[in-house]
Write a structure and sequence with these properties.
heterotrimer; A alpha+beta; B alpha+beta; C alpha+beta; A: alpha+beta; 9-stranded antiparallel β-sheet; 3-stranded antiparallel β-sheet; B: 11-stranded antiparallel β-sheet; two-stranded antiparallel ribbon; 5 helices
Chain lengths: ~350, ~325, ~190
């Protein structure tokens, strides 16, 4: 008997689903298949006067009672500059376009300083891959492309959404799936009859890529019919230390074209976790070691409930307590997400 | 004195678009990723190819075509656009770690030797395409390689022995690299500035000279015309081209430790040493100004005894 | 007004209820405006004397009127974020009340322009008479919508009238609000 296996103090994984930034174009629904009919959406600046009610509401959480501060705020009406992005006048449809690369080598750490642990990890992932073939995860990732979740706020305003997913081989599309995204729910992974085959095929392809059998590169293009000249929602930049007079809202652009951060696209694709306590209420959340939902300031996979990634992984690796199948999927999804998971005492 | 190893051919991977590369590669500089990242990429690639293709990488050059740092716009002081990390298990927001990110478009030029250079055009083309395919799946300076629609395909060129023929080859390669700038090392400029400053202030250190070169210094110059009227003009000292402070590698802070003896090291098979960054002066040179390919290639020199792990470039040898 | 449909905003990992309500209400406004409906009223059962509208939106009308409105596909896009009830009769014993729009005098520029016009004073005098802090602060719940007629984005503030025993009939505008008519309250 060798000494007890222990978790590596340095343990890191690179992400295996690698989306690009999504970039935003404006055009018309009728001509959505004409490449030339699409113009890049630029970010514009606009000045807004912070109205009083506005300011009050912004502060209503903490500063409501602080009347002196409020008065001071009212006496200094601030003209703010914010960024906005809209469809061009007379155009009704947003086109969002990005690529996703599926990389092989799930479970192979990019850094690991415990050779025995590494071997155990690889054997475990290999056994999972052999038995479950990444099919469930592949299908769920495919589903989150088909339902247009990556459009985020832009999906809510849409009357119609079409998503077109192409596999690129040698720079050329080899297979194309086109689906009506609004027929795919955000709250479950039950595909409509009309889209089932597409999600199954695409899911199988992604699973193949995760198993390392083939190189998978996908081009995803979504068309969201929003209405003439409607506002669109690129990512917002997080800028600390804003100087005086700086913009209060900066939107993201890539070489002058409005964009959605690759991190945000990735977050949508890995919103597949329905295996945490409370999933009935909230629906799928992004795969995170503690099941954390940033907008809610809450973590749904608590160590005390033994459903967080670290507890599940340690049980599996060190104590040979194989988690329930759904939790195995979750652990694999965290490895696909990547991150630094070392156990530093 | 380290010297660029033998180069018999060039592998050119044109127009890689890289998203979110690391833009803070030393404690004192920000901007284009460090050459240490590109040398690391070269070695990783060589290991991936081992046994597959008979090629050895002896140097790497980088031509930058586009540089889009992820910083706030407007205003004189810029700050990096950051990312919010997921909340912790208690729901509290995670601390924000400053990371600098940049989107790049670069052409990589590898200086190579190996039997593959003797192979047929078709074989060489296939090898170049294979390597470019591998590269597309790797991280470059921490960034993701985007699938690009480059009109040019990667090339593996065997350099001609005949000088005239080789000159024609280099001419064609240089044209491929335009418009773009290569990063080269200009330690001669640092030495010169150091001497200039010492002329007036003998206590000036190399660090002072480096900081002086890293900024624009404006000085008033008084001129007198024939009537004795004085006119004052302002002059700056950035006349040596596009000169930048860069990290060049690492210098040991302590002795080399045996593999597996340092707690929390990344692996247990490599000797370990605590190091700090070393700095030098680089210059961005238009690709058309290169006299030969040796001028743009970087290679490494590791001296365990001296504790010096350095990126080197021979640009100044061909001035 | 004897039937209703209730929308309940689902808890969402990404979007706050207020954000979802803005979109839902915006889509409703668009649907009412497009169809020229004047027989559909709205209410927010959680939004009485609150700073926010809560998570429920009701549409009130006859079964036929509600049926007509729901024939279109105007909830597309937001459908995954709400639970929608069928058209159902208003429960017995419901009371009635009116829901009004309240416009705050919250923009000093607008007040000054008005003063300049009505009292013939110049901009400087108007600014003196109406300082920036002389504006009204509303503590009412609101939605942020874009008007279908002007395209302007603005805040639509709501205030409820007293609870009444009898219903009053009348026309509703494209925001589902009415000056005179009541909606069932239960």
């Amino acid at each position: 008997m060798s000494t007890a296996l222990k978790t590596a103090s340095v343990l890191a994984f690179e992400r295996k689903l690698e989306p690009s930034d999504a970039i935003l174009f404006s055009g018309n629904w009728e001509t959505r298949n004409t490449e030339k009919a699409w113009g890049a959406i630029a970010i514009r600046e606009k000045s807004v006067r912070g109205t009083i009610s506005n300011r009050l509401h912004l502060k209503d959480k903490d500063k409501e009672k602080d009347a002196a501060k409020l008065d001071a705020a009212i006496e200094n009406p601030n003209l703010q500059t914010v960024d906005v992005a809209t469809l061009a006048a007379g155009q009704d449809t947003l086109k969002v376009s990005f690529t996703v690369r599926v990389l092989p080598g799930t479970g192979q750490p990019s850094a690991c300083n415990e050779p025995a642990y590494r071997a155990k990890l690889l054997a475990t992932v290999e056994a999972y891959a052999r038995e479950h073939t990444f099919a469930e995860l592949g299908r769920r990732y495919a589903f989150n492309l088909a339902n247009g979740r990556f459009l985020w706020r832009n999906r809510m305003g849409a009357e119609q959404v079409e998503v077109c997913i192409q596999r690129l081989e040698n720079g050329q599309p080899s297979v194309t799936w086109t689906v009506d995204a609004l027929q795919f729910p955000l709250r479950s992974f039950d595909a409509p009859a009309a889209g089932n085959a597409a999600v199954d095929e695409l899911g199988a392809l992604i699973a193949q890529g995760l198993r390392g059998e083939t190189h998978v590169l996908l081009q995803v293009t979504a068309f969201a019919r929003l209405g003439m000249g409607q506002e669109v929602f690129p990512s917002q930049e997080l800028i600390l230390d804003r100087g005086r007079g700086d913009k209060s809202k900066t939107l993201y652009d890539v070489s002058g074209v409005a964009g959605i951060h690759s991190q945000k696209v990735g977050n949508a694709i890995r919103s597949i976790d329905t295996w945490y306590p409370g999933a009935d209420e909230l629906g799928p959340i992004a795969v995170e070691p503690y099941g954390s939902v940033t907008t809610q300031g809450k973590a749904y996979r608590q160590p005390k409930d033994k459903v967080d990634f670290y507890t599940l992984l340690d049980n599996w690796m060190l104590k040979d307590k194989v988690p329930a199948l759904e939790q195995q999927h979750f652990v694999m999804a965290v490895l696909i997400r990547g991150g630094v998971f070392g156990d530093k005492e | 004195m380290p010297k660029l190893p033998q180069i018999d051919g060039l592998l050119i991977v044109p127009r890689l678009r890289i998203q979110n590369a690391n833009a803070i590669s030393s404690p004192m500089t920000w901007g284009f990723p460090s050459m240490t990242a590109f040398l690391g990429l070269m070695w990783k690639l060589e290991r991936l190819l081992a046994g597959d293709i008979a090629v050895v990488f002896n140097g790497i050059g980088v031509v930058c075509h586009a540089f889009e740092p992820q910083v706030s716009r407007g205003g004189f002081t810029k700050s990096f656009c950051l990312t919010r990390n997921p909340v912790g298990k208690d729901g509290g927001s995670a601390s924000i770690v400053e990371e600098g990110r940049v989107h790049l478009e670069v052409t990589l030029v590898f200086g190579v030797v190996g039997d593959i250079l003797m192979a047929s055009t078709t074989e060489r083309e296939a090898a170049a395409a294979h390597i470019a395919g591998l590269l597309a799946r790797m991280r470059v300076a921490g960034g993701t390689v985007l699938p690009g629609v480059s009109p040019r395909s990667p090339q593996l060129i065997a350099l001609e022995e005949d000088e005239e023929k080789q000159a024609a080859q280099i001419h064609a390669v240089r044209r491929m690299l335009l418009p773009g700038s290569c990063l080269v090392e200009r330690n001669d400029l640092l030495e010169r500035r150091h001497q200039q400053l010492q002329a007036t202030t003998p206590a000036t250190s190399r660090l002072d000279a480096w900081l002086d070169l890293a900024r624009t210094n404006w000085r008033s110059v008084v001129a007198q015309d024939e009537n004795g009227t004085e006119t004052v003009t302002w002059q700056h000292d950035r006349t040596d081209g596009w000169v930048v402070p860069i990290p060049l590698g690492y210098a040991g802070l302590a002795d080399l430790e045996a593999p597996g003896t340092v707690l929390n090291a990344r692996d247990t098979t490599t000797p370990f040493r605590f190091v700090e960054s070393i700095y030098g002066i680089g210059q961005w040179v238009g690709a058309h100004r290169l006299k030969n390919m040796h001028q743009m290639l970087w290679y490494s020199s590791a001296d365990d005894a001296a504790g010096m792990y350095r990126c080197c470039n021979d640009f100044t040898q061909y001035l | 007004m004897d039937h209703y449909i209730e929308f309940r905003l689902l808890e969402d990992p990404e979007f706050a209820p207020a954000q979802l309500m803005n979109v839902l209400f915006g889509k409703l406004h668009l649907a009412l405006a497009e169809r020229g409906c004047d027989d559909i009223g709205v209410s927010f059962p959680d939004g009485d004397n609150c700073r926010t509208l809560g998570t429920r939106l009701r549409l009130h009308g006859t079964a036929a009127a509600l049926g007509r409105l729901m024939q279109g596909n105007w909830t597309a896009g937001i459908r995954d974020h709400v639970a929608q009830s069928p058209v159902q009769p208003v429960p017995a014993g419901a009371r009635y009340r009116a829901l009004y729009r309240v416009q705050a005098k919250s923009n000093p520029e607008r007040l000054r322009r008005r003063r300049m016009k009505r009292h013939g004073v110049d901009a400087e005098a108007a600014a003196r008479q109406i300082p920036d802090n002389a504006v009204e602060v509303l503590k009412l719940p609101y939605v942020q919508v874009a008007s279908q007629s002007s395209g302007q984005r603005f805040r639509l503030f709501f205030q409820y009238g007293p609870v009444e025993a009898e219903a009053r009939n009348g026309e509703f505008n494209a925001y589902g609000l009415s000056r005179g008519a009541t909606i069932p309250w239960f």
